[in-house]
UniProtKB/TrEMBL annotation:
It comes from the Eukaryota. This is Fucosyltransferase. Its EC number is 2.4.1.-. PANTHER family: FUCOSYLTRANSFERASE, FUCOSYLTRANSFERASE 2-RELATED. The keyword Cell wall biogenesis/degradation applies.
Length: 129
């Protein structure tokens, strides 16, 4: 934000989750932590690393939308609703009432995610509602 350019080098290029590999987990944590130190964060849609980094750093990120059939979305990115991560698969069925419900419309501080219309996230500022 001040015009300074800072280079951050990724400690891993492992490309996929390696369950049970603690060295892999430490590298992943280092990458998430480095992202959380940003003044401004731009993440790709559905980015787990981005979601965790934004919450850890208290950042309200910009989300870069995925292309659809090689078509660039308009706008290509948008400011996220809050620093809270997106809950990709919220409950959608009320077992007692035996009906489906929209989790994003239940509470005034719960909204659908910007990058995943069935996911939900907490929104803490009433001005954003």
């Amino acid at each position: 934000m001040t015009g300074e350019i800072i280079g951050v080098f990724q400690p891993s290029h492992e490309e996929y989750q390696q369950f049970g590999n603690n060295m892999h987990n430490m590298k992943a944590w280092a990458e998430i932590y480095l992202l959380s130190l940003s003044d401004v964060l731009v993440t790709s849609a559905w980015s787990t690393f981005g979601y965790v980094a934004q919450g850890l750093g208290g950042l309200k990120p910009w989300i870069l939308y995925k292309t659809d059939d090689k078509t660039i979305p308009n706008p290509p990115c948008r400011r996220d609703l809050s620093m809270e991560p997106c809950f990709h698969f919220p409950p959608t069925y009320d077992c007692q009432a035996k009906v489906k419900f929209d989790a994003g419309s239940l509470f005034p501080y719960l909204r659908h995610c910007e990058d995943l219309n069935w996911g939900v996230k907490l929104v803490t500022d009433r001005k954003e509602l």
